[in-house]
Design brief:
Blueprint: E1 3-7, H1 11-23, E2 28-32, E3 53-54, H2 62-65, H3 70-79, H4 82-91, E4 96-98, E5 103-106, H5 111-125, E6 128-130, E7 135-140, E8 145-149, E9 156-158, E10 160-163, E11 184-190, E12 192-196, H6 199-202, E13 208-216, E14 222-229, E15 233-235, H7 237-245, H8 247-252, E16 257-262, H9 269-282, H10 298-307, H11 320-332, E17 334-343, E18 349-354, E19 359-360, E20 365-366, E21 372-374, H12 388-407
Parallel strand pairs: 1-2, 1-10, 2-6, 10-21
Antiparallel strand pairs: 3-5, 4-5, 7-8, 8-9, 11-18, 12-15, 12-17, 13-14, 13-16, 14-15, 16-17, 19-20
Helix pairs in contact: 1-5, 1-12, 3-12, 9-11
The structure holds flavin-adenine dinucleotide (FAD).
């Protein structure tokens, strides 16, 4: 009887062991978890509602959703797509609903439904779940592996190992892989909000602009979406996406830089000038500060007019071409100092981890250590918010399941090194 040990009972690990044990009922399938219980993180995903996948509507290129790992995700989604994820959970008794932005949640809006479903599936399939087992090392014995633990547990020998230990913002999270001499990409955080060094902007705390374009000056990083002004700086989908796209750049620059905001969603000054001219023509007698574009809240508009150097008592008829140009330029490319980052409480992920270059992307098996597979956030794969990270966990876990079951006698679709 073959033995497969999966390290980490998170989203990818639990999904993987269920698939493995169902396909290979005679195999001994063990999941080793450092914590006291499995799926602790899944229980708090989506603010306790678990945004477990996304419809991918509006995503034209996978790179938009997966700044790291899009090429791998293209293959993994072919093995297990977002529709497959919804069907799988529905078949297990968790129907889903689609919310804004294509975000998919359990109909109950309760992450515990996802947790309990995976726990039940593991129990019914006959998976061994060993909690409180922190893996401290893996040794390649040539065709077999020896797993050692941080506590007093005896080492475990196994035919195959699947590493699903999740993301870790510090390299120590994957130090147990050091003896295997794998290529890794230094981990840095992704999905955070920005601290802004501008009291004027922060005084507008609570202001939301539905369609802004945020970018980092001097780079090509840009993201579109809603932007929220907070008491520490800026947040909202546009900023979280930007933090994901520019995760490594920002880490290298110690979270300092210049945030450019195009308040009307276009960085094109001549388009903004057209808007300014229309406003001036429509309400020439009104004060500029009191009558701005409909898309912008009044408080924010007064702030923008002030930043363009316009007097509060100035009327539209008195704006002149210089004033109009200054206003258009501020609307198209306002600039604020970024002074740091702040953790986003609803979701944060790791950019970096085990490099994809050392893996067969069809099987997620190590080229150097046949029999050793990886899935989930431990790899250099991560996504923007919206359910894409959990979808990555399901799709990669299924890729590994198919590869191992194909090799070890069950059914499966991936061609492996076996
Ligand atoms: C607060 C929060 C909310 C989120 N909400 C969402 C959301 O709504 N939608 C979405 O798509 N994504 C969300 N994410 C991201 C998502 O949760 C992760 O991308 C996903 O859980 C990754 O799955 P994984 O299996 O790779 O890792 P994890 O789910 O993190 O599981 C890894 C497991 O491995 C265990 N482990 C680690 N090291 C060892 C070791 N040495 N030995 C044994 N066990 C070990 C850990 O204890 C953990 O249980 C959220 C993240 C956070 C932090």
């Amino acid at each position: 009887m073959s033995r497969v040990a999966v390290i980490g009972a998170g989203a990818a690990g639990c999904f993987c062991v269920v698939g493995l044990k169902r396909r290979l009922p005679d195999a001994e399938v063990i999941v080793l978890e450092a914590g006291r219980k499995p799926l602790a993180k899944v229980a708090i995903t989506g603010g306790g509602r678990c945004n477990f996948t996304n419809t991918f509507e509006g995503i034209d290129r996978l790179e938009e959703a997966y700044p790291r790992g899009a090429r791998l995700m293209k293959r993994a989604l072919m093995r297990f797509s977002q529709e497959d994820a919804r069907r799988w959970f529905a078949a297990e008794g968790v129907p889903s609903v689609v919310m804004d932005g294509g975000c998919v949640f359990p109909q109950s809006q309760d992450a515990m439904d996802v947790v309990r479903t995976l726990e039940r599936a593991m129990r019914l399939a006959g998976v061994q779940v060993r909690c409180g087992s922190r893996v401290s090392g893996i040794e390649d014995l040539g065709g077999r592996f020896r797993i050692s633990f941080a506590g007093f547990d005896e080492p475990l020998e196994t035919d195959r190992v699947v590493v699903t230990t999740g993301g870790s913002p510090s390299p120590s999270g994957i130090s147990f892989l050091t003896p295997l001499d794998l290529e890794t990409v230094p981990p840095v955080p992704s999905l955070f909000t920005f601290n802004i060094g501008d009291e004027g902007l922060k005084s507008l705390m609570g202001t939301v602009v539905e369609n802004a374009l945020a970018g980092l000056a001097g780079t090509g990083f840009r993201a579109r979406g809603a932007l929220l002004v907070t008491d520490w700086g800026v947040s909202g989908p546009a900023i979280l996406k930007l933090s994901s796209y520019a995760a490594r750049h920002l880490a290298e620059n110690k979270y300092n830089g210049t945030l450019n905001v195009s308040w009307l969603g276009t960085a094109n000054e001549s388009e903004c000038l057209d808007v300014v001219r229309e406003l001036a023509a429509a309400e020439p007698r009104k004060l500029v500060a009191s009558c701005g574009p409909k898309a912008l809240p009044g408080r924010l508009w007064r702030h923008i007019a002030g930043r363009a150097g316009l007097r509060e008592e100035l009327r539209w008829a008195e704006l002149g071409s210089r004033g109009a140009a200054r206003l258009a330029s501020t609307l198209a490319c306002d600039a604020y100092p970024v002074t740091g980052r702040c953790r986003f409480k609803d979701e944060f992920v790791t950019c970096g981890g085990v490099s994809l270059s050392g893996l067969n992307l069809n099987t997620l098996e190590s080229k150097k250590h046949p029999g050793l597979h990886f899935a989930g956030e431990v790899l250099d794969v991560d996504a923007i918010t919206g359910g894409f990270n959990l979808q990555a966990a399901w799709s990669m876990a299924e890729t590994v399941t198919q590869a191992i079951s194909f090799c070890d006698g069950g059914d499966g679709g991936a061609s492996s090194s076996c």
